[in-house]
Structure formats: structure tokens, C-alpha cells
Design goal:
Chain A: It is found in: Cell membrane. Chain A: Keywords: Cell membrane, Membrane, Transmembrane, Transmembrane helix, Transport. Chain A: This is Nitrate ABC transporter permease. Chain A: It is a multi-pass membrane protein. The complex is a heterodimer of chains A (278) and B (260). By secondary structure, chain A is mainly alpha-helical. Chain A has 2 domains: 57 residues, no CATH class; 212 residues, MetI-like (MetI-like fold, Orthogonal Bundle), CATH 1.10.3720.10. Chain A contains 11 helices and no strands. The radius of gyration of chain A is 23 Å and the shape is elongated. Among the domains of chain B are: 30 residues, no CATH class; 70 residues, no CATH class; 52 residues, no CATH class. In chain B, 36% of the residues lie in helices and 23% in strands. Chain B has 8 helices and 9 strands. In chain B, strands 5-6-7-3-8-9 form a 6-stranded mixed sheet, with helices on both faces. Chain B has a 3-stranded antiparallel sheet with strand order 2-1-4. In chain B, strand 1 and strand 2 form a beta hairpin. The chains are: A mainly alpha (278), B alpha/beta (260). The interface between A and B is medium-sized, with 22 and 20 residues.
Chain lengths: 278, 260
């Protein structure tokens, strides 16, 4: 929550022109934050006193205490975070490379697109859960399999947005290049790719968010080796360690938000100058 | 009009017969059966500024696309006797991620010119169209008229002998359009390219041209040709002269007659 408001305030300062009510935009999320925090305490109180199951919804201050005062848990949390981050980053990089190559190939000709796009859609439609036992048997229950699941999660948005971007050039621009006898490669590098950047960055941002989700979900299936946040969440859940489990859940959530923010900032740095987002 | 290169040594009268574009019985039939052009004969010589007026869908843009090589005529011969062709599109077609300067340099860049040559050419063209001071601006910071100027400058870097214009000022307001017409005439006199200009506007056609060609649609054919007698350079005031008005009236009449 606190992170969320900070995102908003950076957006405000860089896009001051469009900010008609700056104070409101920063203030409202803060109000909502405290409302949610209040609700959290109420729920915790209910599970503590009425249900006698305090580990299901622990008091928020106990979660903070677990994060900041238990060195053993801290180490576990940092290691899990590192492991999840590594899986997410490696998965994302692979998905970006495969996705962009796939899209560039499809953008070369209509028949290539018709031949290859259905398989991109198949990626979207696979129930990943159904593949899990197979991936496990083939690639083991550690890092490799987690990365594969992560790639499956974030490949489609990368393919779709890159392809959409590459096809977004207008006829006049294309003919301008054609009149100078520009070849495919020149067209791609000087026209199609730069024109696709806004769309590619949307794809990157979505894919990055999904990579974090994919890495955490993959942990639930493949629990061997250096477990990530998903593994930590399962373990603490089994041990009925409410505050620790919530700490791991919030860490995973905050990681997702941070990744989203990071790619928004990158996008603005790369194309914000010339691209008007309306 | 003097030309330095002996482009056509066999010609008898060098000034008039120095033909840059020669269409003979050109027909354009699209795969869906539409006949866009039929039996079109058209020449554009050095020193001429030829404007084609006609209703929407009469094939005038197709004429230009054949001239530029973007399309091939399905019948007849379409000869263009220069490879220095400028083409100005309906839209400015600037690349939004490039500054004015980088946009103007684009064509020279695609033709593999050196960076220093490009810079010199681009600066010259930018000065010519009156965009000095806006070199580092991005297209989104320019008005419609300024974008068109940048687009003109981009084509000027090719030193075109034949300049093709596909309704370039159609989307601009009248004041901007008239100002750009004056600029274009100035460039025509100064740079001595031959022009083939497509427009909807009869008065724009008469004001810019040495010859106006009237087309009718479906299939697109040439119905009439008018020589415009006013000498170059022209001043905006000729728009208010009786003879100018009379010619505009005649062209408009021919346009209505041909448009059944």
C-alpha cells in the first residue's frame, strides 16, 4: 500500500501538466490504506478472540515484528526473495527473447503470422497446472522447471504486444521507406522496431508482473532446491506461523508492485519524450 | 530553365522536350476489377508544374503512385526519366521518435550518405522551408503546417528533379495552406524541379501550376487540360485578378462536366 502511493506521487511530478488535483490523488490512496489497515485489525481481532485461530489472520504489528526482529526468519525471507527474483528474471529474459523473435518472424509476412499465431494462442490456453507433472518428470523439481513455468506465464503478452507494435506503422511511413529501396532489415530497425516500442513496453510491464506470479506459483509445484517465496509461504502455512506466512505473502506482493513500477519508469525513460500516452 | 546535364542530347528543342515523366495510354486495373485509370496520356517536362484536379476516387492518387513506382500500370507505358524523385504524402509521415533534424535526414540516411553530408543537406533544407530553430523539436511539438514543412524539407534533401505531391495540404486550414502554396512556388522557382501535384482545390491548382489537368472518375480519364499563362514568380494577389478567377471558373466547369 505504502508503495502504491509512492508510485502515484512520482507519476504526478513527472506528468504535472495533466495533474488537475494532485493532492487528491496522493491523499485518497493513503486514506484507503488506513481504512484497510483498520479492517485488517478488526479481522485479526475476530480470528483471535471469537475463532481462537490467531494464525489465520495475525495482527499487522506481529507481521512487522516477524520481519524486523527474527533474524532466522529474516535470512529465510531474503533467501526466498532472492530465489524468486532469480527465477522471475531468468524466466522473463527468456520469454522476452523468444517472444520478440517469434513476433518479428510473424511480422514478416501474413502467411507466417497465420501459421504461427495459433501456437501463441495455444500458450495462452494451456492449463499450466496440467503440464506440471510432466515438466517435473522431464526437468526435475528445481530451478529449471520453475523457470519453464515462469516462461509459460509471461511469453504470450510479450509475443502479442510486440507483434501488435510491429504492425502499428502506417502505410505512408512504410511507403516512404519503400521509395528509397529500404530492405526488410532497415525497415525493421529504423521503422518497425522503434514504432513498436510503446507497445513492447506495455508487454514488458505485463510480462514482468506475470513473471513474479509465475515464479511464486512454480514454487508451489517444485519445492526442491533453493525454494522461493512460494515455498516459504507453504512451509509457514503448514507450521501455522501466521505472521511469517503473511510476511512472505506481502513480500511477494510488494515485489510484484515494484516490478510494475520499475518497468513504468523504464518505459518513460525510453520513450516518454516522444510518445504521448493518451 | 537551364539544365547542366545533357539529359536528352537528341531532343530538338531542349527546353520543352526535356520530358521527365511520360505516360502513354496508361491503364490501371485492380485485382478486384476496378478500373482506376483508363487511357491516360500525360507528360511532365522540366520547368513545368502540373496539377491534377478531380473528384475523390478518380484515380489521381493512383497516377502518382504509378509515377513513383509504388504501383505498376496494368497497361500502357509509364516512363519516368529521372531517379531523383521527391514524394510528399497526404500526411507528413514524420517518425515521432526523431527530431525534425533527424526526420529530414532520414532519406539521405536510407540512401547511405555520410553523416556529415546528411547534416549539411538537412540544414539546408530546413532553412529553405523556414524551420530554422526547430531542428531539435519533436514532431508532436509542431503544428500541422510545420509538420508539412518538415516533410517537404525531407524530400528536398534528395534534390528531386521530379517532385510528386499527393494532396499534401488537404488537411490544413486555408491560411496555412495558402502560405505553404507561396512557399512551394518559391521553392519551384528556386530549385527548378518539375512538379506533379494532386489536389481537390481548383484555386490551389491554378495558383500553383503551369498546367492544370482535369480528371473524371470511374474509370479515371483526363477530360481537359488548361495552360496557366501567369508568369513565375507569382504573388498571392493574382488570386484576386479577373483572369485568375476566369480560369478557376473554366476549370471548375470542366470538373463539373466531367463528373456525371
Amino acid at each position: 500500500m505504502a508503495i502504491d502511493t509512492r508510485v502515484d506521487s512520482t507519476q504526478r511530478t513527472t506528468r504535472r501538466r495533466s495533474g488537475s488535483s494532485r493532492g487528491m490523488n496522493v491523499g485518497l490512496p493513503i486514506v484507503v490504506f488506513f481504512l484497510l489497515l483498520g479492517l485488517f485489525y478488526l479481522a485479526a481481532l475476530y480470528y483471535d478472540k471469537a475463532k481462537q485461530l490467531p494464525f489465520l489472520v495475525p495482527y499487522p504489528h506481529l507481521i512487522l515484528k516477524a520481519v524486523f526482529t527474527e533474524p532466522a526468519f529474516q535470512t529465510q525471507l531474503v533467501q526466498a526473495l532472492g530465489s524468486t527474483l532469480l527465477v522471475a528474471v531468468v524466466g522473463l529474459v527468456i520469454a522476452v527473447v523468444i517472444g520478440m523473435i517469434w513476433a518479428v518472424i510473424m511480422a514478416q509476412a501474413k502467411w507466417l503470422e497465420s501459421a504461427l499465431f495459433p501456437y501463441a494462442v495455444v500458450l495462452l490456453c494451456i492449463p499450466i497446472l496440467a503440464l506440471v507433472p510432466l515438466i517435473g518428470s522431464l526437468f526435475g523439481y528445481e530451478f529449471k522447471s520453475r523457470v519453464i513455468v515462469t516462461v509459460l506465464f509471461c511469453l504470450f503478452p510479450m509475443i502479442a504486444s510486440t507483434l501488435f507494435g510491429l504492425q502499428s506503422i502506417d502505410k505512408g511511413q512504410r511507403e516512404l521507406f519503400q521509395l528509397q529501396g529500404a530492405g526488410r532489415f532497415t525497415l525493421l530497425m529504423k521503422l518497425r522496431f522503434p514504432a513498436a516500442l510503446p507497445s513492447i513496453f506495455v508487454g514488458l510491464r505485463n510480462a514482468a508482473g506475470l513473471a513474479v506470479i509465475g515464479a511464486v506459483v512454480a514454487d508451489q509445484f517444485f519445492q526442491r532446491g533453493n525454494g522461493g517465496l512460494g515455498v516459504l509461504i507453504s512451509i509457514e502455512n503448514q507450521r501455522l506461523n501466521g505472521p511469517e506466512m503473511y510476511a512472505a505473502i506481502f513480500t511477494a506482493s510488494i515485489l510484484g508492485v515494484l516490478v510494475f513500477v520499475l518497468f513504468n519508469v523504464l518505459r518513460r525513460l525510453a520513450i516518454g519524450k516522444w510518445y504521448d500516452q493518451n | 530553365m537551364t539544365t547542366t546535364a545533357p539529359a536528352n542530347p537528341t531532343s530538338t528543342s531542349p527546353a520543352r522536350s526535356d520530358t521527365l515523366l511520360d505516360f502513354s495510354d496508361v491503364e490501371m486495373k485492380f485485382p478486384n476489377g476496378t478500373v482506376a485509370l483508363h487511357g491516360v496520356d500525360l507528360t511532365v517536362n522540366r520547368g513545368e508544374f502540373v496539377t491534377v484536379v478531380g473528384p475523390s476516387g478518380c484515380g489521381k492518387s493512383t497516377l502518382l503512385r504509378i509515377a513513383s513506382g509504388l504501383e505498376r500500370a496494368s497497361q500502357g507505358t509509364a516512363a519516368v526519366k529521372t531517379d531523383r524523385i521527391g514524394y510528399v504524402f497526404q500526411d507528413a509521415t514524420l517518425l515521432p521518435w526523431r527530431t525534425v533534424e533527424a526526420n529530414v535526414e532520414l532519406l539521405a540516411e536510407l540512401n547511405g550518405r555520410s553523416a556529415s553530408e546528411r547534416t549539411v543537406k538537412a540544414q539546408e533544407a530546413i532553412d529553405l522551408v523556414g524551420l530554422s530553430g526547430f531542428e531539435k523539436n519533436l514532431p508532436k511539438e509542431l503544428s500541422g503546417g510545420m509538420k508539412m514543412r518538415a516533410s517537404l524539407a525531407r524530400s528536398l534533401t534528395l534534390d528531386p528533379e521530379l517532385f510528386l505531391f499527393d494532396e499534401p495540404f488537404g488537411a490544413l486550414d486555408e491560411i496555412t495552406r495558402e502560405r505553404l502554396n507561396d512557399e512551394l512556388l518559391r521553392l519551384f522557382v528556386e530549385k527548378q524541379f518539375a512538379g506533379l501535384f494532386i489536389t481537390h482545390s481548383v484555386s490551389e491548382a491554378v495558383y500553383l501550376s503551369t498546367r492544370v489537368i482535369v480528371m473524371s472518375g470511374r474509370p479515371g480519364t483526363i477530360v481537359d487540360t488548361f495552360d496557366v499563362p501567369f508568369p513565375m514568380p507569382r504573388s498571392p494577389e493574382i488570386r484576386f485578378e479577373a483572369e485568375f478567377g476566369k480560369l478557376v471558373g473554366e476549370v471548375s466547369h470542366a470538373l463539373r462536366e466531367g463528373h456525371h
